[in-house]
Design goal:
- Keywords: Transferase.
- This is Ribosomal-protein-alanine acetyltransferase.
- Pfam families: Acetyltransf_7.
- By secondary structure, this protein is of the alpha+beta class.
- It has a 5-stranded mixed sheet with strand order 1-2-3-4-5.
- Helix 4 links the parallel strand 4 and strand 5.
- The longest helix has 16 residues.
- Bound molecules: coenzyme A (COA).
- The site of coenzyme A has 17 residues, from strand 4, helix 4 and helix 5.
Length: about 160
């Protein structure tokens, strides 16, 4: 990430005064487990144990945080094997700060990072929330064609 981005971003969207988030800083850093847990809560995602969160965050390839007055109001991460497969995870902006261009800033930083590490034909995946594909399409992501689909399993210990 360049110095300009690390500096405080006073205007998130130049020329769109109604959507300004003044003094939001977007920088490369990993959220603390507690910050991350709060961000997850704000998105109403399942709760995870703080130790598990700590371990997961440590294994990030890249993390970015958006902060306002030292409070984390957004984040985004890249996970994967660092060469063949990358997955974008945890792109979250807390509701009070949504629709001000912060998610776009987070994605821009993620895309800039990927441009420095992803080789030709590397796979970059993500899971979109319902109705959220439009947010990612602007970065060139597309739904899998035809009948190809993604699958997932949320691990429930009691049902194993
Ligand atoms: C998705 C999310 C990160 C977007 O953050 P945000 O800061 O509100 O997004 P921005 O203000 O930067 O919006 C950028 C653009 O994407 C569009 N956009 C935002 N959320 C969108 C969505 N869910 N679907 C389609 N487009 C969306 C905006 O309209 C805007 O477009 P515009 O410039 O043409 O007006 C935020 O809504 C969020 O945290 N949601 C809950 C967690 C979540 O679902 N994360 C994504 C996992 S798939």
């Amino acid at each position: 990430m360049n110095e300009q981005t690390k500096n405080q971003i006073n205007t998130v969207r130049q020329g769109q005064a109604s959507r300004r988030a003044s003094s939001v800083k977007v920088e490369e850093r990993t959220p603390t487990p507690l910050e991350y847990a709060k961000l997850r809560d704000s998105a109403r995602w399942d709760k995870m144990d703080l130790k598990t969160i700590e371990q997961g965050l440590k294994n990030s390839i890249f993390s970015v945080c958006a902060t306002f007055e030292n409070e984390v109001v957004g984040c985004g991460r890249v996970i994967g094997d660092g060469a063949l497969y990358f997955y974008i995870q945890d792109v979250i902006v807390v509701p009070a700060f949504q629709k001000k261009g912060i998610g776009e800033f987070i994605m821009n930083e993620i895309m800039k990072f990927l441009a420095t590490v992803a080789d030709q034909n590397a796979f970059v995946g993500l899971m979109s929330a319902e109705g959220g594909t439009g947010f990612y399409e602007r970065y060139g992501f597309e739904e899998r064609p035809g009948n190809e689909t993604g699958m997932l399993k949320i691990w429930r210990k009691k049902t194993v």
